[in-house]
Amino acid sequence: MTRHKRKMTRGRVIAALTAALGLTGAAIATNVMLSPAGAAAVWPTPNGQQPVTKTIEVSGTRDGGLKRFYGTGDLGDGGQDEGQPPLFKLADGAVLKNVVIGSPAADGIHCSGSCTLRNVWWEDVGEDAATFKGTSSSATYKVYGGGAKKASDKVFQFNGAGKLVVSKFQVSDFGKLVRTCGNCSKQYKRTIIVHDVDVTAPGKSIVGINTNYGDTAALRDIRIHGDSSRKISTCDRFTGNNTGAEPTKTGSGPDGTYCRFTSADISYK
């Protein structure tokens, strides 16, 4: 019996985005700090600052009031070493909003399960900006608004299971915007939607996924700035593993199955 794969149309992707964020279409268009005509948002001026000496545990909702949080003591190394603790650790279902993460940023934010990051800004990404670690296939991670700069490697590290939705975000001077883990000891199928995002060179890739685990990435309304030579890869495909070995890259660009977008979804400014 032959099974026909059902491709995600633009309408289905937008509907999935709306449902995942729990917003109406109007809210998606207006509930974020944006300049007119979809231009990149103006970076906020922090409202004071707070040193973080120990990981802040968040359950429920925490509003940072746009204060700058930065690591100090054990969280103040400022290096790129793997295994650093985060500044914030979110419990399943937690919401973190209106936060500026300064430098040193340690390993940014860890989400233990479903989480929402709303209007969170990384001035100088540390090891990673955020790592998503939930183990349920129904876990949903929402990044809405905000931005990240100076990520020498990954901005969002997707180690867990479920769906990641990145909307109305901006990123510049980065390695990878989203990467599903290529060699974690426990692997999952992961779904990514990146929608209405401004990407500014230099950068290496927007999304990297593992096709052998069934990962998919849908890109919609992506604006790439300052990359006239088109060096920033849109969607890289890999064969991942659970042994810790370096994953093998197998392709790049839209393929209709794993990297779900067309050239019309990417514009160069």
TrEMBL record:
Location, primary (coarse class): secreted
SUPFAM superfamilies cross-referenced by the UniProt entry: Pectin lyase-like (SSF51126)
Required cofactor names: Ca(2+)
Domain of life: Bacteria
Signal peptide: 1-29
Keywords of the record: Calcium, Lyase, Secreted, Signal
Enzyme Commission code: 4.2.2.2
Chemical reaction(s) catalysed: Eliminative cleavage of (1->4)-alpha-D-galacturonan to give oligosaccharides with 4-deoxy-alpha-D-galact-4-enuronosyl groups at their non-reducing ends
Gene Ontology MF, one: lyase activity
Function recorded in the entry: Catalyzes the depolymerization of both polygalacturonate and pectins of methyl esterification degree from 22 to 89%, with an endo mode of action. In contrast to the majority of pectate lyases, displays high activity on highly methylated pectins.
Protein name per UniProt: Pectate lyase
